Amino acid sequence: LVGRTFKDTATEIKLSDDLIIGGKKVVIMAGPCSIEGEEQIMETARAVKKAGASILRGGAFKPRTSPYSFQGLGEEGLKLLKKAADETCLKVITEVMDPRDVELVGRYTDIFQVGARNMQNFYLLKELGHAELPVMLKRGLSASYNEFLMAAEYIMSEGNYNVILCERGIRTFEDYTRNTLDLVSIPVLKNLSHLPVVIDPSHGTGDWRLVGPAAKGAVAMGADGLTIEVHPEPAKALSDGQQSLKPAKFESLLEELEGIAEVS
Ligand code: PEP
Ligand code: MN
Hints:
This protein has a single domain, classed as TIM Barrel. Helix 1 runs parallel beside helix 2 and helix 4 crosses helix 5. It has helices at 38-51, 75-88, 102-106, 122-128, 145-157, 185-192, 201-205, 208-220, 247-258; strands spanning 13-16, 19-21, 27-31, 55-57, 91-95, 111-114, 135-138, 163-167, 197-199, 225-229. By secondary structure, it is an alpha/beta fold. The structure holds phosphoenolpyruvate and manganese (II) ion. Phosphoenolpyruvate binds next to loops.
């Protein structure tokens, strides 16, 4: 079902009349790594809206490496995220980690995010295959293209065809960057599949100074969207501050991207 042999026209995922992932415009998802509180998410929502983004991201259930790190605000975070998005007319994307939370998260989001660590959580994928909302599936930390596409197949084979692929960097021998962002995945995945491809330059590099160049490269290579971490005060962020852009930097990045393709 994921393959070009099944369907040879690009899949368009329509969130509203003028917001289509896989359409003509590059769709921008932006927001903090984690929802930390009302003021933080409201301020970020206003800033990314003003800059030109159309989807607000933010995690309430966080897949942290250490069990002692901030794990997210849970349902309280989802409520704050939805409120901030509604007040700024943005759509919502947020991560679901557990099949038991699909119903809960679905009440607050417009797109489910499956994190890299859960790419092969087949029970979660099957559960999302029965959901009504689109799913953005992030590539596993060391997943091949075939493994990535087969994970998408799990969702589609249960009936949900609205799947977005997200390249977020893979683990290689190089440890200067947090991950190695594989931009060639854009044409490769588009040759193999009809699904839209989104790039995450934040987790892909782990360094806010590299986010802009990686985002520009991704757009030049044909990405259908970008997901970018933005925080009003990155130095105080409870997660991923080092890779988060300040609002002003994010705004100037979107202006630069407009020179390459139409963004929304
Ligand atoms: C995220 O987008 O917040 C995230 C945790 O990403 P990943 O699953 O790609 O590490
Ligand atoms: Mn993050």
